[in-house]
Amino acid sequence: MKKIFLATLVFLFSSSIFAQNIGNHSDRLGDKQLKTAVMQDKSAAVVAGNNIRDNLETLNSLELSKKLNIWRNTYNSTKLKNTSMTVSELYAQNGTIGYQAVVNVRYQYTIRESNQ
């Protein structure tokens, strides 16, 4: 009888601990812009932007969260939805033109909602 009581007691306490960790989860979408350095050549800016995009696709969920500065508990669920790139012309006061690639990143992650 003591063993059954003890087993029941252990089960009740352990199930309440697990229940606290479950909580409500929700998917979130985010957007981020990553910019290259300003370059003198437009094709160099395109190459640099494509390097950023290629690098993002090789990252695992944790690395991607760090790269995108997502500081919430994302449960290693961060993933890319899509990326696009634009190249901007930047005009300096001295009349020179520079080029900068801007990589637009759309991502998704899951967070645990507070039960409070």
Describe the structure.
- With 116 residues, this protein is an alpha+beta fold.
- It contains three helices and three strands.
- The protein has helices spanning 2-22, 42-58, 61-67; strands at 24-35, 79-91, 97-113.
- A three-stranded antiparallel sheet has the order 1-3-2, with helices on one face.
Task: Please compute the radius of gyration using only Cα atoms.
Answer: 24 Å
Output mean pLDDT: 83
- DSSP E strands, number: 3
Low-confidence stretches: 15-20
How are the secondary structure elements laid out?
Layout: H1 2-22, E1 24-35, H2 42-58, H3 61-67, E2 79-91, E3 97-113
Antiparallel strand pairs: 1-3, 2-3
What labels describe this entry?
3-stranded antiparallel sheet, 116 residues, single chain, alpha+beta
In short:
By secondary structure, the protein is α+β, with helices and mostly antiparallel strands. Helix content is 39%, strand content 36%. The chain has a three-stranded antiparallel β-sheet, covered by helices on one side.
